[in-house]
Amino acid sequence: MWLHKQLKEKWPIIIMLISAALLLFAGFQLLQYYGNFRAESALDEHLQSIHNKIMTYDYGVGKTDSPEETKERARSVMTELTEINPDYIGWLTLEGTEISYPIVQRDKEYYLNHDFEQKVNSHGAIFLDGDCDVEFPVWLIHGHHMKDGTMFGGLKYLERVDYLKEHTTLYFDAGDGNEKYQIYAAALIDFSKENDSFRSFHYEELPLTRETFIQWQSNLKQYAYWYDTECAKRLEDISETLLPREILVLSTCEYGTDLQRLIVVAIRVEDD
């Protein structure tokens, strides 16, 4: 009885202490996130300045460099960024958006919480899947879906088909100058729905042969919420050769569940 009375009297104080602790924890988390955001923003600006200083042309619009000059510039970017991080393999840009980042590769986990300078940061870096060999025809590229819009946070706008149709051009520079890609498919994948009657599209099972590529492509078309059928002929052509880096898959988490992904898929095309 006495103990019950003591607890009853102290209960408001206990509630206040718990609330204060939770508030302090939330404040710490917010400060930590803001610190990571500031660090990532400063790093992005620095890396962009290196890239833009060297690659002065505007993706073919008013470009005056010869192919040889372009490749020389691209090699200079590769040299400078590789000196900062030996894991650097190329630069990715989604035209008309804020998505313009260096791509790195190490393993499946490291760059989930390390930035381009290999410092711990919850924003991570944009990275090529650890199981993806550079000779693979399909390259799977991961990035966090950050609420502040950085990394692959901007991919969320591609869920609007009207916006997607206006932003279908990608560029990837692996050290020889920009290669142009056209987004032809976008899909929301939910691995939680996998059961006997429904098999989610395992887009991470990258195809290595003509047969597996055709099946992979068929599954993609089935699950896509947007698909450009005009690319069909080109897909048939590349299935016969399967050259390296023919297809880029950009993948990021969705906020429905931990098992949801948003992917956009682009095919390499000839520059205009």
Task: Sum up the structure in keywords.
globular, nine-stranded mixed β-sheet, 272 residues, 9 strands, single chain, alpha+beta
Short description:
With 272 residues, the protein is an alpha+beta fold. 37% of the residues lie in helices and 21% in strands.
Describe the structure in your own words:
With 272 residues, this protein is an alpha+beta fold. It is built from five helices and nine strands. It has helices at residues 2-54, 67-84, 161-165, 210-223, 232-241; strands spanning 88-94, 100-104, 127-128, 138-142, 169-173, 178-190, 224-227, 247-253, 260-269. A hairpin with a 5-residue loop joins strand 1 and strand 2 (100-104). Residues 57-62 have low confidence and may be disordered.
Low-pLDDT runs: 57-62
Number of strands: 9
Order of helices and strands: HHEEEEHEEHEHEE
Residues in helices, as a percent range: 25-40%
Number of helix segments?
5
Strand-helix topology:
Blueprint: H1 2-54, H2 67-84, E1 88-94, E2 100-104, E3 127-128, E4 138-142, H3 161-165, E5 169-173, E6 178-190, H4 210-223, E7 224-227, H5 232-241, E8 247-253, E9 260-269
Parallel strand pairs: 4-8
Antiparallel strand pairs: 1-2, 1-5, 3-4, 5-6, 6-7, 6-9, 8-9
Helix pairs in contact: 1-2, 4-5
